[in-house]
């Protein structure tokens, strides 16, 4: 059943050679030739094209790092799911790594869209505090997950050592 409420979508328009994304609804029309997934031509005055490509490379580096954290969380879970290590010790470490990766992907996407919009308007936003916050959150999360894994390993090996000592006596 289709509700009468309309869903949002992004359409792009051109203004003096710049691409502007505007929020619209599915019921309103977007020119399909200006689809957000089609390559577009930007007026290359000054260094706009170079700056947008540099922002894209930076976005891809942040996204690659975020995907690395997601992969690390998944690999950690895969490595420990059949070991005697208590699941209650490893699952939080995996979740912290997955959340780190998700946070970095979201941060990278938001930052990229803000930078491209600002470049098209002729400025460049410097976000020192936000970048430092992202690095700090990621570092704290990584250290926390490493600590959780080390504690789980120490508990597991501590139990195995006690069992070996009891068997030898």
UniProtKB/TrEMBL annotation:
UniProt domain DUF202: residue ranges: 50-116
Short name of any one Pfam family annotated for the protein: DUF202
Keyword Coiled coil: no
Protein name: DUF202 domain-containing protein
Ranges that cross the membrane: 59-78, 90-108, 128-150
Species: Phaeodactylum tricornutum (strain CCAP 1055/1)
Entry annotated with the keyword Ribosomal protein: no
Keyword entries, A-Z: Cell membrane, Membrane, Transmembrane, Transmembrane helix
Record localization: Cell membrane
Domain of life: Eukaryota
Lineage: Eukaryota, Sar, Stramenopiles, Ochrophyta, Bacillariophyta
Cellular component, GO annotation: plasma membrane
Membrane topology label: Multi-pass membrane protein
